[in-house]
Give the backbone structure.
Amino acid sequence: MRPLRCGRRKTRSIPLGLFALCLAAAHCLQSQGVSLYIPQSTINATVEEDILLSVDYSCHGVPTIEWKYTSNWGVQKIVEWKPGTQANISQSHKDRVCTFDNGSIQLFSVGVRDSGYYIITVTERLGSSQFGTIVLHVSEILYEDLHFVAVFLALLAAVAAVLISLMWVCNKCSYKFQRKRRHKLKESATEEIELQDVEC
């Protein structure tokens, strides 16, 4: 009877052991993947502003991080690096990009041409990778347009004031000239009348 009980215990412990082994394997497989978090997937900015394309990742080991830029002009590689090493920045973005170990990048003094899709790819040493996208909209600064309009209107007002002043001076001069002419005509008319009276 006792050997039979021992045999039953062994058969019950085999499925429990397999179950624990499967759980451990699943946990290992899950922990080897790359996870990527993007807090803000759309960013609105104005010209000359500094923009942070913020991301965060988690993985085992040191991954390779790559940022690309996609717009109407095509796909362009911005930067590639491994955290703790020097970044390989493309010529088009030299002195305009700052990298961070968490995968984020900062773009300095953005312009309208910088509007588009920014794609980050985090690749683990074992080959697994994860990518994400941030959309950037860059617009002109409104107050600069208003400033230009205000200066233009002030210039027009100054020109209008000068023209009105010139018209006023011309009007005064013509009025004085007409007044003198009328006075002369009046004098000549009175002289003619006096001469006629003398002749009579």
The CA atoms of residues 73 and 113 lie 9 Å apart.
